[in-house]
Amino acid sequence: MQRQTIFGFGGAVTDSAAINIKYLSEEAQDNLIKMHFGSQGSRYNIIRINIAACDFSVRGYSYDDVEGDVDLVYFNLTEEDYNFKIPVIKEAIDVSPEEIYIFGSPWSPPAWMKTNGEIDGQGKLLKEMWQPYANYLVKFFQMYEDHLGVQLWGFTPENEPLISQNYTFLTTPNCVFLPEEMRDWISTVLGPTLEEAEYDRLKLMIYDYNQSLDNVHDMDPTKFILYSEACTGSHLGSVVLGAWDRGEQYVCDIIEDTNHWATGWVDWNIVLDTEGGPNWINNYVDAPVIVNATADEFYIQPLYYALSLFSRNVPRGSVHIFSDVDNDNLKTTAFINPDGEVVLIVANFSDEEHTLGVFNEDGVYVFKYTINARTWLALTYKI
């Protein structure tokens, strides 16, 4: 049974990720970027970028911190964009064998556009700022496309719009958007503004604070679901080099998400330093690649190999197909690639090897395979 078409796999080029990459020598930078985006590397084909400051920045900022500048006369990108993110993304585009889908997510509007006058806290977007903020986002799209030389693919109007209501102690930039308020802003202001500026071609993805994948799919099967952020290490010791249990977490999560209608899976920071930063609010986590700039080195983590299992074997345009396994120690997900090849991804999370028999949808035996303990792999075959 064929299900959703796959957009791809990738990660976020945050301020912190780009800064870490640019701290390396040019040779090391090139090697690292090729490992993520090159044909011999993970072949990431999705990039997420933060629109102004997020927690993985080195400071809090917006693209217009001049209070009351509703005409956005002082709007501009920052050094984080010009010196770090844009150069890294341009090199990723250059080494990628295919188009990279690039989408942005804002954490907060400028503080003066919010009810609490801060980029963090539990403030909302002032209603009189609905139009200025829509214009703000359009300016971001225009300037990024001008500097990258390619079109953006999409955006979310707000990262985790309810996080500060559920976690009141957080100091990360955010903006509270209740579903009804976001609906009204999009339909009456943002949507028409995008259309007028000819940015209605962008994929608008809403409510990136949701994990009820089956329920969302059943509400409207014509809409796609993209898993837009994942990470590990928060409150768990941040960076742990060589932590294969964290790699298993990623594999398990990607299998579960693609089995429940996700069209792709986007990691959080593609690169961090040995502390899991930089992060201006001390919210450190782990990442697939860890940079030691002092030694001009970077370390490949099990998380990298976990995501590469999918990004290298399941190209864009593959179609998810139903799979099941009668063994609680194994997890599977399966796809048909554009060339007609079947890719069966199998993960054995137990300490023993297991033999599985593969049958097609008509119940016809195809082959058997013995998978070693603590192993994840892709089995490919023609129907």
TrEMBL record:
Gene3D superfamilies: Glycosidases, Golgi alpha-mannosidase II. Residues 7-211 form the Glycosyl hydrolase family 30 TIM-barrel domain. GO terms for molecular function: glucosylceramidase activity. It catalyses: a beta-D-glucosyl-(1<->1')-N-acylsphing-4-enine + H2O = an N-acylsphing-4-enine + D-glucose. Keywords: Glycosidase, Hydrolase, Lipid metabolism, Signal, Sphingolipid metabolism. It comes from the Eukaryota. Its EC number is 3.2.1.45. This is Glucosylceramidase. Belongs to the glycosyl hydrolase 30 family. Pfam families: Glyco_hydro_30, Glyco_hydro_30C. PANTHER family: GLUCOSYLCERAMIDASE, LYSOSOMAL ACID GLUCOSYLCERAMIDASE. InterPro entries: GH, GH30_C, Glyco_hydro_30, Glyco_hydro_30_TIM-barrel, Glyco_hydro_b. The gene is neg-1. It comes from Armadillidium nasatum.
